[in-house]
Design brief:
With 424 residues, the protein is mostly beta strands. It has four domains: 5-124, Sandwich (Immunoglobulin-like), CATH 2.60.40; 127-245, Sandwich (Immunoglobulin-like), CATH 2.60.40.10; 248-367, Immunoglobulins (Immunoglobulin-like), CATH 2.60.40; 370-422, Immunoglobulin-like (Sandwich), CATH 2.60.40.10. 0% of the residues lie in helices and 36% in strands. The chain has no helices and 31 strands. Strands 1, 4, 6, 8 and 9 form a five-stranded mixed β-sheet that branches. Strand 29 (396-401) and strand 30 form a beta hairpin. It is rod-shaped, with a radius of gyration of 42 Å.
């Protein structure tokens, strides 16, 4: 005589694909078809002589074959649609590992009365990772709605140690390039820990990372890669972005404004060499360039030109040191920002630079003040010519500009007068 035996256990969703049942995170999979064969893969009969039919897992992922004759058996698991088998025989505890190798267990020997409930199968859904590489116009590390993707950026995937990885089919995961919209994706991945690596496009710099508190729109690129990203079964993590910007530049021209009208005259107004020009942020504080170096002041060249380049997009003020003996021209005259003077109180207004922008409209005009005057004399022979005749003291002289009196003075004891500090 013998006691009938039974065999069964559990088909589970292996969230981290480690082949081991996690009692907190790994739930059973309902409706998985499970069959029982002998050691040769042939159908078997139960103790009553009936063919042992296949079964399906219940709502908790459990299955069982009972009323079995002691002997050798194999449990066969049908892989659920969209899932992949977890690694088998991991961890050294047969009660919680996955025993599914190539769709079935090994040969299981049942003795009289034995209830073998250690024959489990883990499955997982492949995961994916990706998102967008974007042109960060304002270099704030956050995707604004109008900021576009950057195509053809090379993106790679590694494990947490920086080593190459295999996909769920066992194939190496190759690097990819972003599409026309800056999007990329790695799919059919085994759940686990990954790092996304971004190759910096030529002429660009990485935006600051993890700004703003919203991981769906920030840049996650730190030193050319993301942090470690943990993917669980079936997860599609599309929050792994990288922002890049093109360094900007600012500059133009400091000119001698011969007529003091605040507008560059290409014929008469020449550049002023050696004028000290500085760059600050919108608060007047020093700034760093795209490499993190302080932006030093500069001086205009022989043609009056200056430039600050390799700048991070953002808000800036250009500060002009007034050359000795000169006076700033009136600012923002004439309606053409490319030829006017932008110097108000020794500096421009706040200038916003976008990614890759070269703003060469920030000029400063200066002029030398003029003077006007001479001599009021007693023309004793009334010939209109000074013939060594004496000056007349105390004569009131008025200065008119466009018919409007601007100043008044009186001749001195020798008959001389002068108006100084005049705008040309």
């Amino acid at each position: 005589f013998y006691e009938t035996a039974s065999i069964g256990d559990y088909v589970f969703l292996d969230e981290n694909a480690d082949g081991i049942q996690d009692p907190v995170n790994d739930e059973g999979i309902e409706g998985v078809v499970v069959s029982l064969t002998d050691e040769n893969g042939d159908p078997v009969e139960d103790a009553d002589g009936n063919i042992v039919a296949s079964t399906t897992t219940d709502a908790d992922g459990l299955y069982e074959f009972d009323n079995l004759i002691p002997g050798d058996y194999i449990v066969v698991f049908e892989t659920p649609t969209g899932l992949v088998s977890s690694p088998a025989n991991e961890g050294g505890d047969d009660t919680i590992d996955s025993d599914n190798v190539g769709g079935q267990t090994g040969v299981i020997n049942l003795t009289s009365g034995e209830d073998d409930d250690t024959n489990d199968a883990g499955f997982y859904a492949p995961a994916s990772i990706g998102d967008q590489v974007f042109l960060d116009e304002d270099a704030d590390g956050i995707q604004d709605p109008l900021e576009e993707g950057i195509p053809n950026v090379v993106v790679s995937l590694t494990d947490e140690n920086g080593d190459p990885v295999l996909d769920a089919d066992g194939n190496p995961v190759a690097s990819t390039t972003t599409d026309a919209d800056g999007l990329y994706e790695f799919d059919n991945l085994v759940p686990g820990d990954y790092i996304v690596v971004f190759e910096t496009p030529t002429g660009f710099d990485p935006s600051p990372a993890n700004e703003g508190g919203d991981d769906t729109v920030d840049s996650d690129n730190v030193g050319g890669q993301t942090g470690i990203i943990n993917l669980i079964s079936g997860e599609d993590d599309d929050t792994n972005d990288a922002g890049f910007y093109e360094p900007a530049s600012i500059g133009d021209y400091v000119f001698l404004d011969d007529n003091g009208d605040g507008i560059q005259d290409p014929v008469d107004d020449e550049g002023i060499e050696g004028v000290v020009v500085s760059l600050t942020d919108e608060n007047g504080d020093p700034v760093l360039d795209a490499d993190g170096n302080p932006v030093a002041s500069t001086t205009t060249d022989a043609d009056g030109l200056y430039e600050f380049d390799n700048l991070v997009p953002g808000d800036y003020i250009v500060v002009f040191e007034t050359p000795t003996g000169l006076t700033p021209s009136p600012a923002n005259e004439g309606g053409d920002d490319t030829v006017d003077s932008d110097n108000v109180g020794g500096q421009t207004g706040v200038i916003n630079l976008e990614s890759g922008e070269d703003d060469d409209t920030n000029d400063a005009g200066f002029y030398e003040t003029a003077s006007l005057g001479d001599f009021v004399f007693l023309d004793e022979n009334a010939n209109g010519i000074q013939d060594g005749e004496p000056g007349i003291q105390g004569v009131t002289v008025n200065l008119l500009v466009d018919g409007v009196q601007e100043a008044t003075t009186t001749t001195n004891g020798a008959g001389f007068y002068q108006f100084n500090d005049l705008i040309p």
